[in-house]
Amino acid sequence: MSKVIKNGTIVTHDRTYKADVLVENGVIAEIGPDLKGDETLDASGCYVMPGGIDPHTHLEMPFMGTYSTDDFDSGTRAALAGGTTMVVDFALPSPGQGLLDALKMWDNKSTRAHCDYSFHMAVTWWSEQVFNEMETVVKERGINTFKHFMAYKGALMVQDDEMYASFQRIGELGGIAMVHAENGDVVADLQQKLLAEGNTGPEAHAYSRPPQVEGEAANRAIMIADMAGVPLYIVHVSCEEAHEAIRRARQQGKRVWGEPLIQHLTLDDSEYMNKDWDHAARRVMSPPFRNQKHQDSLWAGLQAGSLSVVATDHCAFTTEQKRYGVGDFTKIPNGTGGLEDRMPMLWTHGVETGRLTPEEFVAVTSTNVAKVLNCYPRKGAILPGADADIVVWDPEKTKTIHADTQVSAIDYNVFEGKEVKGLPRFTLTRGHVAVHDGELRSQEGHGEFVKRTPNTATNKALSRWKELTAPRPVERSGIPASGV
Amino acid sequence: MSKVIKNGTIVTHDRTYKADVLVENGVIAEIGPDLKGDETLDASGCYVMPGGIDPHTHLEMPFMGTYSTDDFDSGTRAALAGGTTMVVDFALPSPGQGLLDALKMWDNKSTRAHCDYSFHMAVTWWSEQVFNEMETVVKERGINTFKHFMAYKGALMVQDDEMYASFQRIGELGGIAMVHAENGDVVADLQQKLLAEGNTGPEAHAYSRPPQVEGEAANRAIMIADMAGVPLYIVHVSCEEAHEAIRRARQQGKRVWGEPLIQHLTLDDSEYMNKDWDHAARRVMSPPFRNQKHQDSLWAGLQAGSLSVVATDHCAFTTEQKRYGVGDFTKIPNGTGGLEDRMPMLWTHGVETGRLTPEEFVAVTSTNVAKVLNCYPRKGAILPGADADIVVWDPEKTKTIHADTQVSAIDYNVFEGKEVKGLPRFTLTRGHVAVHDGELRSQEGHGEFVKRTPNTATNKALSRWKELTAPRPVERSGIPASGV
Amino acid sequence: MSKVIKNGTIVTHDRTYKADVLVENGVIAEIGPDLKGDETLDASGCYVMPGGIDPHTHLEMPFMGTYSTDDFDSGTRAALAGGTTMVVDFALPSPGQGLLDALKMWDNKSTRAHCDYSFHMAVTWWSEQVFNEMETVVKERGINTFKHFMAYKGALMVQDDEMYASFQRIGELGGIAMVHAENGDVVADLQQKLLAEGNTGPEAHAYSRPPQVEGEAANRAIMIADMAGVPLYIVHVSCEEAHEAIRRARQQGKRVWGEPLIQHLTLDDSEYMNKDWDHAARRVMSPPFRNQKHQDSLWAGLQAGSLSVVATDHCAFTTEQKRYGVGDFTKIPNGTGGLEDRMPMLWTHGVETGRLTPEEFVAVTSTNVAKVLNCYPRKGAILPGADADIVVWDPEKTKTIHADTQVSAIDYNVFEGKEVKGLPRFTLTRGHVAVHDGELRSQEGHGEFVKRTPNTATNKALSRWKELTAPRPVERSGIPASGV
Amino acid sequence: MSKVIKNGTIVTHDRTYKADVLVENGVIAEIGPDLKGDETLDASGCYVMPGGIDPHTHLEMPFMGTYSTDDFDSGTRAALAGGTTMVVDFALPSPGQGLLDALKMWDNKSTRAHCDYSFHMAVTWWSEQVFNEMETVVKERGINTFKHFMAYKGALMVQDDEMYASFQRIGELGGIAMVHAENGDVVADLQQKLLAEGNTGPEAHAYSRPPQVEGEAANRAIMIADMAGVPLYIVHVSCEEAHEAIRRARQQGKRVWGEPLIQHLTLDDSEYMNKDWDHAARRVMSPPFRNQKHQDSLWAGLQAGSLSVVATDHCAFTTEQKRYGVGDFTKIPNGTGGLEDRMPMLWTHGVETGRLTPEEFVAVTSTNVAKVLNCYPRKGAILPGADADIVVWDPEKTKTIHADTQVSAIDYNVFEGKEVKGLPRFTLTRGHVAVHDGELRSQEGHGEFVKRTPNTATNKALSRWKELTAPRPVERSGIPASGV
Ligand SMILES: [Zn+2]
Ligand SMILES: [Zn+2]
Ligand SMILES: [Zn+2]
Ligand SMILES: [Zn+2]
Ligand SMILES: [Zn+2]
Ligand SMILES: [Zn+2]
Ligand SMILES: [Zn+2]
Ligand SMILES: [Zn+2]
C-alpha cells in the first residue's frame, strides 16, 4: 500500500524545497509535486526530513548481572516517538569472548527492534582470535566500525599497544576506529582517592572524570590513529579539551570526527550538586555533564563543522539500578536516556535559537551519521530509492518532557520539565508509519540490520596520502662510508 | 534534442554512484540506469560531476585605461575548457559611480559569455545613493553579495566606518558581505618605503603585502561583520594568518567562509625570486603567493572544512601589460590567470594525492560555492531539474600545461610546465556540449545571468541568534537611585 | 638620617631571603644581616619588597572642563597608602597641541606628588611638529613610551596610517609604542545604535565596547608594530580576545607586553546590571569589566608570562561627575579608582589563593614594570644603590575596603566591602617613611620625575632581527629578460 | 688568593651594568667599581655572566655493557671550555635497583668532576621500595627532581599508573616531576614496522619518533601532573607539538617548564638524509632533529617565555659505539654531544641574530635553570655570596667548531664546521680559573655536589591552589532522598 506525504517542505542536509514524497515498498519511490498514493499523510506546515539516526546506543546492555532497562523493544519505540528511525548499538564482547560470539548475542536481542539498526563492534581485549575475527566482522557481518575503551580499567579498557595494533588492523580492513576517550588509569586512581577522602556521592563521579582526562585520551587516540593511518571517530565528546584536540587534528588534515551528545549540549554539571541523591545519580554517565564553557564549545563545533554528529549514548538504568551505588559512586551504573528527546531538544536549543539552520539539524542528526558510518544514501536521505525512514516534523508542536508520559521504560527523564518546540507529526520506518499524528503505532520486529561496507572514499584518500608520505630509506653505498 | 551521459559514475558533494544522466532542454531530466536520448555521450571510466563554479573572476576588468585581457568571451571559453561552467564576476563602480550604473557596464560586457555567470556587487565608496541602490541590487537585480576592498588605498579601499555601515545595510537586506582583506594603509606605506629603498622589482610586491597585513584585515572584517550581524565571505585567503582568523571566528559560532585560490594552493613565493623579471611580474597578484607553511594551512583548511571553496581571482594581464611596472612594482597590474586550470590542478594536487576525496573536490569547486552564494541546486548539483551544467571528468587523462596551447587569451600561464592528471572529456553548459572529447565547441552569448536571492537559511539563523542575544536595558526605578 | 628595616624577609622578583636593609640618603645602602641605622623599622613577620609601580594612571586628567578628582596630591597619597611608590601618568596633548606644551602642563600638576612618577607621552594627532618633538621628548625629557588611542573617535583617536607613521618614528628613536586598543569606529557606531534603541544606562557602556572590538584593535596594533619594527605595550588588556592576540604575537617572536588591570582581574560585568544607577556608573571605564571567562584568561596570562604587569588606569571621578551621564551613557566620564587597592587586592586574590608566588607578585606589580619601561634597577629592586622605594608587607594584616576610610579623594570605591589580607606596614619613598605602621606620613612635593632612556636591549635585539630579515632586491641583469 | 674581574660589563638575567667582581674563597665577595684583588682578570670588552648550567647531561652513562664516552672528567672539562660551570646528570637505577643504590654509583663516577654538579633521580620502575626511598633522596640527598621515561619500552619506560603514583609521591615531598616525553608503545611498534619494511638506516630512527609521539606524551604527562598537583619539567622539547601542549597548559595556569636543546634549535632533520651512514648515525638522539618549522617554534618559545631553559642532553658515543647499529637503527646508541658548544652556539644564533637579548641568554642558559631546579642564587647569579661560577664572555671572539680541536672525548662533533662568535675568555668554577684566556686549566675532582631542597615557592603556590579547588562532597540529608 503506497503512501504519499503531501504539502510539506522537504529539508535535507543540503536543500530545502516544497515537494510531496511517495513511499512504496518501504522505499521512497518518487519526489515531486502533486503525487498520489493509497494513503495520504498531511505534512502541511511541516518539514519532511530524513529520520534521525542515533549512532550511539546501548540497549539491553549487560551490567552487573542485570541489563540496561531500555532494550531493543522499548528503546526503538522511544526512538521512533522522537523521530529517530535508526540506532547503532555496540556489540560488547566480554574479555576473552570472541567477536562473532558477542555479535550473536546482539543479533538475538535486536530481533525485537521496531526500527532499523546497525552495530559497532567493540574491541575489549586483544589476541590473534580477535585479529582474525575482525576480518569476518567486516566482510561477512557488514560492520566497519570498531570501538575501543580507553577507560573502565580492569574491564573493557585496552592498552596503547593493543589499541595501536587494533587500529592498524582496522586500517588494513578499510574500517573506522572509534574510541571512548578517558584516561582509565587516572580515573581509577582518582576514584580510589575520592572514596578514601569521603567523596562517595554521585558528584564524585564528575570529580573523578574531569575534562582533562578526556582531552588527554582524545589527543592520544588521535595520534595513534594517525600513526596507524586510520580514520577516527571519537564518541561522546563532552568538553573543550577533547574538542580542541579534534580541531587541532583536523587542522593538520587528519580524518577525525567528534560526536557530542544532546545531554552535554543542554545539561550542565550543576545537576550533580543537587541535594537529592537520586536526581544526581540518574545523571551519572561517562563523561559527566560539564559547565557552560564546554557547552558553548560543543555548539560552536557543530556550527563550524569541527564536530560532526549528535548522539545520545542512550543507556538507561532505573532509579533502582542507580541505587546500587548508594555510598559508593563507583557502583552507580553509568548511563542516561536521551533517544526519545534528542531530536526535539536539539531542534529547540539549536534551530529555534538560530545556532543551527534546519539543514544543519538534518546533517548532524542523520545525514552526517549515515555518511561517516557508510550507509548513506540508503539512510539519511530523502531521495528516490532511499529507505523511507522519514520524520514529518512539526515546528510548532510543543510539549513539556515528563517521565510519566514517555515511551522509554525508565522511571525518570534527565530532561524532566524541559519545554520543547518541534516534534514529529509522523515518523516512518521503511515506509511503516510508526508515529501517526503523535500516536505510536510501531511494530516489534519490524527493524532490520543495516550492513555497512568498508573502504569509504575517506579511507582510500587517507591511505593514498599515507603511501605518498611514507618513510623511504636513504640509499647509501657502503655503510658506514666515512671516517671522522 | 536530448542527450544522455552513459556509463559514468556520478560524483556529487555527498554521494558517488553509477547512473546515466538524461539532459533535455538544458536541464537534467532524469538520472537512472539505462537511459536513452537523441545523443549519447560516453562517460565510461569517467566521473560525472557538477560543472565547476568559479566564485571569483575579473573578466575585462578596467585598468589604467585598458582592460584585463581575458573577457567574457575568451574567459568563459577557458573556463569551459577546464570544466568550469559558471563564473561570478565583480561589478566594480568607480568612486562616485552608482551601483546600477556599474552593473549596466557589466551587463554589456557579459553578453558574450559562453557559460552562465553571476555578479558580486562591489561597494567602493559610501553615500546615501549607494545605501539606497543596494536594495535595488538585491531585490531587482538578483545579487546578494557585496564586496569591499580593505586595500588599494586611494582607489577602491573603504574605511572601517564605511564598511561597518555597509555591512549593517547588507544585514538588513539579507545579503552576504565579502572582503578583499589586506590593510591598505600599511601596504601603501610599505610600498613607498620599499621603492625608496630601491626595492623596485616584482619581488617587492610580495614584500609589500606580507601575510600579517592580510591576517589583520581578515580579523578586522570578521569583527565588523560580527557586530553588524551579517555572514562574511573572505576572498582569496592566502595565508595561515587569515585562515587562523577564520578558524577562530568559526569556533565562536560566527558565519564566515574562506576562499583559497588554486594559485596559492599550488605555487609559492619563490616564483618572485626568479631572475627573469617577466616570470616574476606575471605572478604578481594580491595577495601574493606564499611559502609552504601557508600552502599546508590552506590544504588542511579544505580538508577540515574551515575553508569552503576554491577560486581563481582570474584577472589576466598580458606580458605587455605587466611591463607597465618595469622599474616600479606598484605599477605592475595585479592579477593572474587560472580559470582554465583550476579544476585539473586541484584534482591533481588534491584528489590524486589523497588530500581530498572526489566528493570533497566537487564540494569545494562547485557545490559549496552554489550553496554559499545561494544558487544551489539550480547550480552545483546533479539532480533532476538542475541546470545541465556538467563535467564528465576523465581521471586518467593527462596533459602538460602550456601557454601556447591554452584557450585563455594571455601569452603565458603561471602553471606553465605543470603536469595534470584529470581533465574534462565533456563539459556541458545548460545542456550544450561545450567541450566534446576535449574539443571546444562553445557558443558566444550562450551564457545567462544567474539571479541569487537574499535571506538564506544562514542569514535567518544568524539574525535569530543576534536578536536573542541583543543588549537589553536594565530596568531601574529612579535614576540615580543611591548615595554612596 | 639612616634607617634600617630589620627582621624581614626580602622578596624580589627572583629571590626570597632573610636580611636587613639599610637606607641612607634615599637609596638602599646595604643589605645583610644585623644592620644598624638611626631609625629601625621592624619587619618581623613581613616581606620587604620593592614598592609597587603603577604604570598607568590619569591624575587630574582634564575632562569636559573639569578634572579627574584624584590629582598628584591625593592620588600619590592613595598610592603610598597601598604600597605603591611610583606612578606613570599620561601626558595628553589636545588635538593640535604640541607634545612639549602638553608636558609642561603635566610638569605643573605633578609638583604636588608625594611619590616618584614618570610620564608616557600620548600621540593624539599627527603632524611634522609632533614628529619633530618626539625626538626632544625622548632625548631631553627622558620619556621613551608613546601612547596611541585607537578609540575615542573625534577626540584622541588616531588612524592606522598615523599610527604606523608614529610607530616608525618611535622605532627610530628607540622607544616603545603603547596603545589603548579598541576599534573606535565600531564603538562610536554602537554607541549611537544603542542610544537610538533606548539603551541609555551605564550597562550600555559595556554593550558598546564588547571584547571583540578590543581584540580586533589589539591584533591590529600588533601587526602595525611588527611592520614598524617597534616593541609594543598594550594597556588595560581586559579580555581573552586581546590576550589571545598578544599570546599569538609573542609566539611568533614579537615583542609585545600586555597590562591587565586589577579591576578586570577581580570584578566582573554583572556590576553594570546593578539596579542602582550610581553603582553601575561608578564602574564605567574602558574597556569595561568582563565575565569570569575573561578573568580566568588574565590570571593565567600572569601565571604563564604572556601578560606582564598589573596596573590600575586610575582615573577617579566622583559620583557627581559620573552623573553627567544620566540619560546618556556616552556622557559618563570613563574611569575608576584602584591605586590604593591594587597591591592588597592582587595579593589577596593572587598570592593567597596560590595563583601567584610572592616573587611573581613583585614581578607584576613592580619589577616587570621597571624593566619594560626602563627604570630598573633604580626602581623595582631591592639592591644596593637602588632608590629606597620599599614596601614592608604584612601578610597577616587584613581590612575591609570602605570608601569612607580611604585616602583617595573620591566618594566611593569599586572594591567597596571586599576583604583583603596583606597590607603595608611601612611604605618608603626614596627613604622617606610615607606609611608608618599603617599611618600615612607622606610629604607633598616629595616625588620626583623619573627619566627613562630609550634603546633598551629589547629595542636593539628587535632592530637587529629586523635588519637581518629585511627585504632584499633580486638581482637581475636586463629587465625584462624574457619572452614567453 | 682573591681575584678581581675588571673592566667588564656584568650581564645577569635582569640587568646589565659596568662593575668589577671580587672573588674570594670561591664565592663572590663584592661587586662594584675599582675593586682590587691578588689576581686580576681583564674583562675589557667582555660580558661577565653567571656560568652556564646544563640541566641535562648523561656522563659515563651505562649502555650495553659499555658507557657513554664523555665521563665526569672529559665532560666537565668540555663544559668549562664552553663556559658552563655546572651540570645536572641523571642517576638511573636499573629496573629493580634501589634509588639509593643507583645514587652511590653516580657518586662514585662524579668524584672526577672539574665543575660542580647535581643529580636528577630517575624513577625507572615502581615499588614500595622506590616509594620509600624517594623521601630519603629528597630529604637526605638534596635532590628534588625525579625523571620518568615515557619511552624506551622494556627498559626504562614506566606506565601511566606508575607515573601517576610517582607524581603524587613527588607532590607530597615537594619535588618536581620530569619526563622524557615520547609514546614508547608507538615508538616500539614503529621501529619493528620500519625494520620489517627494510628501513634499517639511521634516518629510520627519525621516522620512528615523529613529532606526534612526542607531542602526545608531553600532553599526557601534563595532564597527569595536573591531576597529581605537581610542577612538571619536560626535558628535550624538540617540536611544535610538545611546545604547543606546554603553552596550552601554561595558559591554563599549570606549572610546566619546557627545555629545548641547543641541537634542536640549530640542526635539522636533513642531517639524517646524509649519504654518509656515520654522519647520520652520529646525530641519532631521541627525540631526533626536526625541521625548520619546529626550530622556529622553539626559538619563539624562548622569546615568549613558554620555554624556559636550553640544555644539551649531552650523551656522547664514539663513532665506534654508533656503529653497533649498522644494519639495525634501533641498536645505534642514542645521544649526541653539545656541552662544549651550547653557549657559543646559542649566543651566535640567538644573541647575534637579535632573537635573544644578552639578559635572556643568561636566563635560559643559567639563571632559569637555577631557579627552576632550586639552587638560585647560589648558582646562576652574579651576586655577593653566590658561588663564583662565572664566565667572562668575549662577544668578538670567533672560532670554527672542529672535532679535532675539541675537549670532549668523542671523535666527531655534530656542529662540525659551524662558525661561532662569542666565546669564553675566562671561566671560573667556584673561584678557580678553569679557562684562562682560552686555555683550559681545570682541576679533576674540583667539582662538588650541589644540594637542592624541595618545597619551592612554586610548589607551595600550586598546592594552595589545588587545596582551594579540591572536590568537596555535597551535603545531603537522607540518601536517596527522592522518588521520581
Ligand atoms: Zn562511552
Ligand atoms: Zn557508550
Ligand atoms: Zn582582491
Ligand atoms: Zn579579485
Ligand atoms: Zn585607555
Ligand atoms: Zn588610561
Ligand atoms: Zn631523554
Ligand atoms: Zn637525557
TrEMBL record, chains A, B, C, D:
Domain of life (superkingdom): Bacteria
UniProt key word Hydrolase: yes
Domain Amidohydrolase-related: 47-418
GO cellular component terms attached to this protein's record: cytosol
Keyword Aminoacyl-tRNA synthetase listed: no
Reactions accelerated catalytically: 5,6-dihydrouracil + H2O = 3-(carbamoylamino)propanoate + H(+)
PTM characteristics: Carbamylation allows a single lysine to coordinate two divalent metal cations.
InterPro entries named in the record: Amidohydro-rel, Hydantoinase/dihydroPyrase, Metal-dep_hydrolase_composite, Metal_Hydrolase, Metallo-dep_Hydrolases_sf
Modified sites of kind N6-carboxylysine: K147
Pfam family, one: Amidohydro_1
UniProt xrefs under CDD domains: D-HYD
A GO molecular-function descriptor: dihydropyrimidinase activity
Biological process (GO), any one: nucleobase-containing small molecule metabolic process
EC number: 3.5.2.2
Cofactor(s) needed by this chain: Zn(2+)
Binding partners and assembly: Homotetramer.
PANTHER family in UniProt: COLLAPSIN RESPONSE MEDIATOR PROTEIN (PTHR11647:SF1), HYDRANTOINASE/DIHYDROPYRIMIDINASE FAMILY MEMBER (PTHR11647)
Family the entry assigns: Belongs to the metallo-dependent hydrolases superfamily. Hydantoinase/dihydropyrimidinase family.
Biological role stated in the UniProt entry: Catalyzes the hydrolysis of dihydropyrimidines and of the structurally related DL-5-mono-substituted hydantoins, to produce N-carbamoyl-D-amino acids.
Name the record gives this protein: D-hydantoinase/dihydropyrimidinase
Species for this entry: Marinovum algicola
